[in-house]
Specification:
alpha+beta, nine-stranded mixed beta sheet, 9 strands
Length: 190
C-alpha cells in the first residue's frame, strides 16, 4: 500500500471533520485507544506506537474531529498499482462519540474523496466478531465478500478471522450518502 492523496485542508461534513494529525492529538488518541471497547479491537497501543502510526504518519492518517475535539482516527491506505485502484481503510471512534453515526460519516467523507481521485474500490476488514462495526459498514453500503481466516492474533494468542468487505464506485458513483441522523421527535399536533 502507498500513501493516499489526502487533502491538506480538512474534509468537513455536517458533524465530522477529517484532518491531518497534529502533535496535540497524541494524548486524546492514546486515551481513546485505552478505552476497553476500543482496546478490545485495537490491541497493544502505547504512546510511542500512537506517535509512530498516527501522528508521524500524516500521509495515511486522518483524525476524526467533532466540534473541535479529537473523536478517533482513520488510516487511508491506497494501493500503488494503477491497475488495481483500491484503498483500504481502518478506523476507530471513542466510545462517548458512538451512537451518532460519526464513523459512518467519516467513512463516507473519506470514500467520496477517494472516488474523486480515481479510486474505484474501498475495502475494510473488521474482526468477524465485531458486530457493531459490521452493521455500521453495511448501513453505509459495504458488501460482505468473505472471511479472511486466521487473520488477527488476539491477546490470548488465538487467531480470529476478519470479514472482508468492499464498496465500489459502481455502487455509489459519487460516494455513499452521508448517514441520516436521528431527528428529535416532532411535537404532537393537538
Amino acid at each position: 500500500m502507498s500513501t493516499a492523496v489526502l487533502p491538506t485542508a480538512p474534509i468537513t461534513g455536517p458533524l465530522v471533520s477529517l484532518r491531518a494529525p497534529i502533535a496535540a492529538d497524541l494524548e486524546p488518541l492514546y486515551e481513546i485507544l485505552l478505552e476497553p471497547e476500543v482496546a478490545f479491537w485495537w490491541v497493544g497501543y502505547t504512546r510511542e506506537r500512537v506517535q509512530q502510526e498516527f501522528i508521524d504518519a500524516v500521509e495515511v492518517t486522518r483524525v476524526i474531529e467533532i466540534e473541535g475535539e479529537c473523536a478517533g482516527a482513520m488510516f487511508v491506505l491506497r494501493g500503488e498499482d494503477p491497475e488495481y485502484p483500491t484503498t483500504v481503510m481502518h478506523l476507530f471512534i471513542g466510545t462517548r462519540f458512538r451512537g451518532r453515526r460519526i464513523g459512518e460519516e467519516a467513512l463516507a467523507l473519506a470514500i467520496q474523496h477517494e472516488f474523486q481521485h480515481g479510486i474505484s474500490r474501498i475495502t475494510l476488514d473488521p474482526n468477524e466478531h465485531n458486530d457493531g462495526a459490521i452493521r455500521s459498514y453495511e448501513r453505509l453500503g459495504f458488501k460482505r465478500i468473505g472471511v479472511l481466516r486466521d487473520y488477527q492474533v488476539r491477546p490470548s494468542g488465538a487467531l480470529e478471522g476478519a470479514l472482508f468487505m468492499d464498496l465500489t464506485r459502481s455502487d455509489f458513483p459519487d460516494g455513499p450518502p452521508l448517514p441520516p441522523r436521528c431527528r428529535p421527535a416532532s411535537p404532537r399536533r393537538q
